[in-house]
Amino acid sequence: MSTRRGTWVAPRLAPGGLPMDVTMCTRALNTARSLLPFDIGARTFERVLNSHFDHKMYGLKPAHHAINQQPFVNDVLPSRILTGTVQIRGNVSRLGPDYAEFRDGSRVVIDDVIVATGYSKHYPFLPPEVAPYVLDDRVELYKFIFPVGDPSVAFVGLVEPIGGFWPVAEMQARYVARVLSGKLQLPDVERQRKEAARRASALAIDSARYAAQVHWIAYMDELASILGVKPNLSRLAITDPVLYKRCVFGPCLPYQFRLEGPHSWEGAREAVLDFPKRVASVLTPHTAPEETSLRRATAGAIDIAATCTVMILIAYVLSLAI
């Protein structure tokens, strides 16, 4: 396997066997990441990933930090490297009739080449003034949705979220619906252009591949605040502590954005609280959810998320005292 930059690899499963999203994609950790100095948050996340295997020893550690890029989610790659089934190589310098030559001068006889480079952001069927374009590895779209100065067309799903994709696409669709229905007005062109430039300058990796990268919880909260559907956590802490704990320390489920505001859903609270039952009904259909260990695993995952957040804050305080 040839890799130019290397990559951070994240496992699918968290402690207790639940998806890693349950412990890592929480409001608590997202808030800690945004408040703490970049180096502390980056090193903490990288220690979590390196606890599964040492990325440097396996030849995969990239130059950029883990929180700057969507990690490669895979459970089998480390074991494949360990057994020799997969060999990590650097960048390819050239291809021959039956071999690949790498920048270090080594050659490997090959049968096939699988180019896993993703997709380019080009829309040849749209006029140039409308299509989102990549210029110097930047995408000029307001909120990564509307071409600057043109609200007649919108792009839903063009973002590269560090987190779940479909919740982000749904939030974008809700934003677009409000604009196209005339219930929400976009700011003036100059403000749109400045915000697009600000987002572009904040990118940690200069690459067209990451030109539309966002941290998904922060990005959804940004759109939700404009739409009036962001959950009021301060109020929930007083009026509904159980729901507050699940919203802050549990996985950031998209049902949170149906708790209040336009197009709210009366079943949203139950959907947030009862997601362990729905997972259990798939994993253990022959057993009642109350009889499974999934609820305990979920509670443990939430406790882990809370503990990690507290530990990060303590590390920050100690770093200030040194």
The helix/strand class is mainly alpha
The shape is globular
How big is the Rg? 22 Å
Oligomer: single chain
- The helix content is 40-55%
Strand order of the largest sheet: 3-4-5
Percent of residues in beta strands? 5-15%
Give the termini separation.
43 Å
Treating each run of at least 4 consecutive H or I residues as one helix, how many helices? 12
Topology diagram in text:
Elements: E1 9-10, H1 21-24, H2 27-35, H3 38-50, E2 72-73, H4 77-83, E3 92-95, E4 99-102, E5 107-109, E6 141-142, E7 146-147, E8 160-162, H5 166-180, H6 189-201, E9 213-215, H7 216-227, H8 233-239, H9 241-249, H10 268-273, H11 275-283, H12 294-321
Parallel strand pairs: 1-2, 8-9
Antiparallel strand pairs: 3-4, 4-5, 6-7
How would you sum up this structure, described in words?
The chain has 322 residues and is mainly alpha-helical. The protein has a domain of 109 residues. Helix content is 41%, strand content 8%. It is built from twelve helices and nine strands. The strands form four sheets. It has a three-stranded antiparallel sheet, with no helix packed on it. Strands 1-2 form a two-stranded parallel sheet. Strand 6 and strand 7 form a beta hairpin. Helix 8 packs across helix 9. The longest helix has 28 residues. It is globular, with a radius of gyration of 22 Å. The mean pLDDT is 83. Keywords: FAD, Flavoprotein, Membrane, Monooxygenase, NADP, Oxidoreductase, Transmembrane, Transmembrane helix. It comes from Rhipicephalus microplus.
